[in-house]
Amino acid sequence: MATTAFKNNYRNIRIVVLCFVGYILLNWFSPFLMLLNYDFVRLFITFITSVIVMIPIVIGYKLLDDKGNYLQVFGVEGNIKEGLIAGGVLFLAAWIFSIFSLDFLRNLVYVKWLLYIFIEVFVIDLCVQAFFFRKITTYTGWSFFRIILFYVAIYSAVALVTAFVSLLFNSEILSKIGDDLKLLNMIPMDLLLKGILSLLRFILTASFLYWLYVEWNFNLWVVVFAHLVLNLANGLTFLKIPIFILLIVTGVIGTILYKREKGLPLAIKRFWS
């Protein structure tokens, strides 16, 4: 019985990983649709790309044969009021941290732009949180950071393989690899530091959103609205500290205080083991 369960979980993990890799590749290459010179495509580009990148995820759910309707499986049936409150708190915090700056509010004037960002964030969290993280959590029982490292490893592996394949199909670039490697010593330190900080931001944001998702009982709306505010605050700083870091701290402290007030235990108890 235990052997059968292990085989089923192993099969399900492979399905999740393969479908998620398909999502990553489509998500990376879907912006090339912008090159198509059709008014229809440009008008509905956000909707079209969202449908395209979700194809592997929908296939994954079909192969996993999960019980319940799609609203339940995706977590969309969660309390949207909780999501609005969580997003509202982070929105207010971002506005305060920006010293009531209009830089944070100016993009809200462009309703169409805000709608596009919301759709993009919703699809990302649907694929990353509701599919990858939730399924890997269910099928592996791994600790928090082990799942995060697995997530980062998949992204990194796909990026490296994609870059390598691109080089193989470009003989001119491939022939200059030796010269390019020599130029590595000439990379400015500020550019290298910027790349490292971008990677750390990616890991920190993924960890925070996954933590929120689990602590709020897999309520996707909490993650979506929190993610939306993080995107709106992108690039803003407070006393030279990126506001997104302050928002993550606010979200973590706010969640812990809320659970203490309600007498609820924290859902994540294992971080390393």
Automatic annotation (TrEMBL):
The name on file for this protein is CPBP family intramembrane metalloprotease
Q: Which residues cross the membrane?
A: 15-36, 43-64, 84-102, 114-132, 144-170, 191-213, 233-258
Q: Which UniProt keywords apply?
A: Membrane, Transmembrane, Transmembrane helix
Record keywords: Amino-acid biosynthesis included? no
Keyword flag Phosphoprotein? no
Q: Which organism is it from?
A: Capnocytophaga endodontalis
Domain of life according to the entry:
Bacteria
